[in-house]
Design a protein that fits this description.
Length: about 400
């Protein structure tokens, strides 16, 4: 009996997907899908008409199907979620489309400091909408104030509220740089088949509002400016500042062709001035918003990914889920390439610079970064043999003075 029911539901699902594919193929030459509201109901009650010649209608129906499918998927994935962990009682409390308030988080860091990994850890939470590097269009610069700060912050805020209107530059950039969208896996699931969906402000805004968790990563804005977002009651956002040893950062940047010759990315002086500025800002902000800002060194995340992830999730008010455990298991194994201990791999990654950087270059970085390294607890290597020695452990304790 069960088998038979299953068989029929498979048939129905198959039939529906065929209809969807047919519908999808109807709008490929159509950039916009905004028919009048009346047209929607006609299509929905008369599914067979999808194959008719009026392609606008088909697209609208397809969009509705995407929304319905997504709602159902999120509900299923969140079935065992412990909402009390997030301070609410049910899914709707976290959904903008039901006037709820999502859990919003933002990673503030700089290039090559482990944000890709942490961003993906958070994106492994079910029902997460990942605003990946919204400021790519600014290219390789740091935003520390005028002339870009106002616009950039306005943009971050709007996106966190799922308002993608008046963001033509963002979409224009994404049109030729699809990685701006592809890291947002739940969005990309749909627009990899139909790129125009990702370029559509109205679709993106509505789709975004279906998700209980909203995460973002930003490597181009310094923490001092993020105060504005922390103070915003409507946003109700939590911030993670991710910091990494400047020698590790510079080592990693050498292998990225985007970095040179952009001074904000290539000059240790600028990196470390930003690290000092972030330290001062962290002190001030922690005093005012102790439960909204957390500071994390990349090295600790890499050395103990599980414990650190649990700690960060607790801070964000997100219950640990099996999907997060799975992500950590697979992604600490991926780099192992045959060696079974994830511990060993993690230990080596953050300190790779010790054995790959030339000591003269390390000295240059250390000279430029004396204050930053002292504040953030990174030990100076005094000569090449000390640097490469196994006994030299670069991490020291640090405290943030408030
Ligand atoms: C849900 O999380 C809370 C802590 O926020 C805990 O006290 C409670 O036992 C959890 N419930 C379940 C069913 O795990
Ligand atoms: C990860 O950390 C959590 C909390 O500290 C713990 O309960 C869990 O057993 C850990 N998982 C692994 C695989 O070590
Ligand atoms: C390198 O520095 C360490 C620590 O300061 C010191 O003990 C050692 O003698 C130095 N080695 C050389 C070759 O200068």
């Amino acid at each position: 009996m069960l088998r038979r029911v299953n068989f029929y539901s498979i048939c129905i699902a198959f039939g529906l997907s065929i209809l969807l594919i047919l519908a999808g193929s109807r709008y490929t030459d159509n950039n916009y899908y905004r028919p009048s509201p009346e047209s929607r109901s006609i299509v929905e009650v008369n599914l067979p008409q999808l194959t008719s010649s009026s392609s606008n209608y088909d697209t609208e129906a397809t969009i509705e199907k995407i929304f319905e499918k997504t709602r159902a998927k999120i509900q299923m994935e969140m079935k065992n979620y412990n909402y009390s962990f997030s301070g609410v009682s049910k899914l709707e409390d976290l959904l903008m489309e039901s006037n709820g308030q999502p859990i919003r988080s933002i990673i503030i860091s700089t290039w090559r400091s482990g944000t890709t990994f942490l961003g993906e850890v958070l994106n492994s939470v079910p029902g997460n909408f990942y605003h990946y590097e919204p400021l790519l269009k600014y290219d390789i610069i740091q935003i520390r104030g005028a002339p870009h700060a106002d616009n950039a912050l306005k943009m971050l805020k709007k996106m966190m509220l799922c308002d993608f209107s008046e963001m033509d530059d963002y979409f224009k950039y994404g049109k030729t740089h699809l990685h701006q969208f592809s890291h947002n896996t739940r969005l990309w699931d749909h627009c990899k088949f139909k790129k125009d969906l990702c370029l559509d402000a109205q679709f993106t805004s509505s789709f975004c509002k279906l998700f209980p968790f909203q995460s973002m990563k930003v490597v181009r804005v310094r923490l001092r400016l993020i105060k504005q977002l922390l103070e915003d009651k409507e946003l109700n956002i939590k911030v993670m500042l991710l910091v990494r040893d400047p020698r590790g950062v510079m080592q990693s940047r050498q292998h990225r062709n985007f970095c040179q010759p952009a001074p904000d990315c290539w000059e240790p002086e600028l990196l470390c001035a930003d690290m000092v500025s972030d330290y001062v800002a962290a002190g001030r902000l922690l005093q005012k918003y102790p439960d909204r800002l957390i500071v994390q060194r990349y090295e600790e995340l890499a050395l103990s990914p599980n414990a650190t992830t649990h700690q960060l999730l607790r801070f964000l008010g997100i219950s640990p889920t099996s999907s997060v455990e799975d992500f950590l298991l697979t992604h600490t194994n991926v780099e192992v390439s045959g060696v079974s201990s994830t511990f060993r791999v993690s230990r080596e990654v953050p300190f790779k610079w010790k054995n790959t950087l030339d000591f003269n270059y390390v000295e240059d970085i250390q000279d430029a970064c004396k204050e930053a390294m002292n504040l953030w607890g990174y030990k100076v290597a005094h000569n090449a043999s000390q640097m490469t020695s196994k006994d030299f452990y670069p991490l020291d304790n640090y405290t943030i003075s408030q």
